[in-house]
Design goal:
Radius of gyration: 17 Å
Strand order of the largest sheet: 5-11-10-6-7
Helix content: 10-25%
Number of strands: 13
Distance between the termini: 27 Å
Oligomer: single chain
Largest sheet: 5 strands, mixed
Number of helices: 4
Structural class: alpha+beta
Shape: globular
Strand content: 25-35%
């Protein structure tokens, strides 16, 4: 289930009542993940820690709830899509956002200069050293060039951190660096309904 703008919920914490939520909830149609993620375990798969969920444009089967008037039930009509940069190689000031479970249901963020870190010897993650986002924030966006309206470009996502200190790692989504994120995105856009299989494991 996907609940955008969950911070606007009328409830005191996350729940499955979609009528509590400003835009309601969307049922996920299927997912697309990298073979390198599916066939190994953390931390050996950190270089593949990205995936996509697809939501069909069929409000009668995918959307429910919402207290805002005029909701169409079509996800990319009701929620502004975020631009993804699959060629990002900069070191811009970065905003990382997510729903840490210890502050549920509030939307939290870190903002700082980025660095890099080797969580495993063979893969260099992007790194935000003083970021305190925690469990529940995984998959939240890393945004560069954010303007006063909160609009920017996604170039990574929250992946992992340490138990005993602050910091958040994110994978590079840059195709030229070997990321399969762009390939998976194209698969998600064009793949047919997988039926009971539930999704696709992609090797690109």
């Amino acid at each position: 289930m996907f609940i955008p703008d969950q911070v606007s919920t009328k409830a005191s914490s996350s729940n499955t009542n979609c009528n509590d939520d400003k835009l309601g909830c969307w049922k996920l149609s299927f997912g697309v993940v990298a073979q390198g993620w599916a066939e190994s375990q953390f931390p050996d798969n950190v270089g593949f820690d990205y995936a996509y969920y697809v939501v069909y444009d069929d409000p009668s089967t995918t959307h429910s709830g919402g207290y805002l008037r005029g909701i169409s039930g079509i996800l990319d009509h009701d929620v502004t899509p975020v631009k993804i940069d699959f060629d990002y190689s900069g070191k811009d000031f970065t905003y990382a956002l997510g729903y840490s479970s210890d502050h549920d249901p509030y939307y939290r963020y870190c903002s700082m200069d980025q660095d890099t870190i080797y969580g495993v010897s063979w893969y260099q993650n992007l790194w935000l050293d003083q970021c305190g986002l925690g469990s529940g924030a995984s998959g939240g966006p890393w945004i560069s060039n954010m303007d006063e309206n909160g609009v920017g470009t996604l170039f990574s996502i929250n992946s992992w951190g340490f138990d005993d200190k602050t910091g958040m790692a994110g994978p590079s989504l840059r195709t030229q660096d070997g990321s399969l994120a762009e390939c998976l995105f194209q698969q998600a856009l064009n793949a047919p309904d997988p039926g009971q299989q539930g999704g696709y494991v992609v090797s690109c």
